[in-house]
Fold this sequence. Notes:
alpha/beta; Dna Topoisomerase Vi A Subunit, Chain: A, domain 2; 2 domains; 5-stranded mixed β-sheet; two-stranded antiparallel ribbon
Amino acid sequence: MALYPPTLARLITSLSRLPGLGEKSATRLALHLLRSSAEEVQELARSLVEVKEKIRTCSICFNWTDSDPCPLCRHPGRQAGQLCVVEGPGDLLALEKSGGFKGRYHVLQGALSPIDGVGPKELRIRELLERLEKEAVEEVVLALNPSTEGEATVSYLTELIKSRLPRVRLTRIAYGIPLGGDLKYLDQGTIKMAMESRRET
């Protein structure tokens, strides 16, 4: 005999596919939604649909946005001479919250991982090089996660940029971040210190 009605079971299954949610957490969320008002559930459903319909990547930095270019790329107060390269939008958000960087960003949308089939063509590396050639960038800050994939990406970008654009200064955020850590989950003080103590790569 089924423990839950089929519609509730489907919701639990759908929620359990979300990262960080196991069956118990998904069940708890599903039961909470069941107890919530129709208006609250409809608002959640509208938000989910709206995110899929309106959010896209910025044509300049490739961060998630609902306007193109994104607010950070349009902001006149950002330092145009500095470009911070990150793996994903969550990393950009973590750096921005720390307040340690006032330049512009470039989101690679991942890191090199040959085992997973992610090579240079799957990332926004070509667009990065185009930006460096067109924009008056003096310094590129490599703020990639200190993982195996992040390290491989840093090495690849360092060689590529140094060979093509030797005028550009390359720096890297300092190792105040634990090996295997993920920028978006670190506290703002650690991120700010790492950004302020970046070094030549």
